[in-house]
Amino acid sequence: MSADRENHDMTQTDIALLLADATDEVEIGTAPVQAVVRGGRRRRARRWAVAAATAVVVLAGSAGATLAFAGRPGEHRTQVATQVRDVARPQVTELAHGTDHGKRWRVVVSVWQAPRDRTEAARQREAMQSYGIDGSALPGLTRLVGRTSFYASLYYGDAPLRPVIFNTVDKWEKFAVADLESGASHLAEEDAEGRLVVGMVATTVRQVRCTWKSGAATVAVPRAAAGSPVDWFVCVAPDGTGYADAKAITSG
Amino acid sequence: MGERKDARDEQFQSFVIGRWPRLMRTAFLLTGEQHAAEDLVQTTLEKVFVAWRKVGAADDPEAYVRRVMINAHARRHRRRLKEFLAPKDDSGLVREVPDAGDRIAQADDRSALLKALSQLPPRQREAVVLRYWEDLTETQAARAMGCSAGTVKSNAAKGIAKLRAIPGLADMVTQGGRNR
Q: How far apart are alpha carbons A54 and B95 in whole angstroms?
């Protein structure tokens, strides 16, 4: 590099000054607050609609394959068809829904197929973000390659999707009869206790008993979720109490 | 509950009004074009609105906003492959050194810089803008770009090296065309 060239080199401070100066070219104008709010509301509504539509597809697709569970009239297990491989489209199943303090809530599980390489992983990560997964629940690219991810998440009122339990695994863990894995979280933001319990059990489990700190209990029937070899359950505690314990019940 | 929602909406609206100018400037450097910048900022803020309950309560909402903006920019770039650039000065004529205060020449300089910036690959452009316009540390920029600090460092270094290699830009600085 010649001396002349060195004299003409820009320092990083110069670059910062040039960039700052270049921004004077843009006309700032007034912030379109109302347009932003309207657009935001549309996006929120669309997200609800997309999630609901996907859940319906999973259920509708499996309707023909519904098997009655032997010896327990009225109780059904849903065998869910596997979908064509697409790492950017999770298989979504609604596990439970309800209303709490006048607000609708739904718990859905999304299962994301293992990307083969970093390109697929990047596409999947982007799709996860669009789906509403963010922050610490979003795995790094390297972690995604060759691994299946699943998220059991809550939609509560207008709030963004909130993962309750999630993991990225090489292989699904095999659940023995009495095995149960669950996570407790608040349902409404203002809940002092973990009222929402979401968990996984073996497909042989017929019921799960969730016991609350108050001593009361709730029984949930696990259900299948598309793309998942284990069954899922959701329990919700009454107001003012929270999760104490959950047990799989294998016999009637 | 309703009052809390109103308060949140108000908080969001104040946030939009307060941050709009700065976000517009950042988006302008990323996109190189007025309308694309407006579009990018509006899209970003709409997404922020959806998550405002969480974002508004966070210690550093700006970090989230930057992350959303960079993601939106990256996504847009992948989709279009080619952005609205500002290819204004490719006449091949020898560039005259502008007098300080000469507004027309200054505008030419700016468009030369924007053109140079727009010719950088998107990740390098994002790294340069975040590091040298937003004045973020490598760690903060990495958080915004969803990559490691090392990747930011290397992207910023490559971007800066390419900008430095443009003689016209170096002249602007050394001849006093940029003294703010």
A: 58
What pTM does this model have? 0.48
Contact B24, B37 (CB under 8 A): yes
Helix axes B34-50 and B61-80, enclosed angle (nearest 10): 130
Half-sphere exposure of A227 (CA within 13 A, CB side): 25
- Tens of pLDDT, residue by residue over B103-137, are 455 556 677 788 888 888 889 999 999 999 999 99
Residue of B37, B38, B170 lying closest to A10 (CB–CB): B170
Q: pLDDT digits over B50-61, tens only?
A: 888 888 888 888
| Residue B93, domain member (yes or no) | no
One domain, residues B71 and B24: yes
In a domain, B179, yes or no: no
Q: Is B57 on the interface with A (CB under 8 A)?
A: no
Q: Where are the domains of chain A?
A: 34-249
Residues of A in contact with B164 (CB under 8 A): 9-10
Write out the residue range of the structural domain in which residue B159 sits: 103-174
pLDDT single digits (tens) B151-169: 999 999 999 888 887 766 6
ipTM for the whole predicted complex goes beyond 0.90: no
Number of folded domains that form chain B: 2
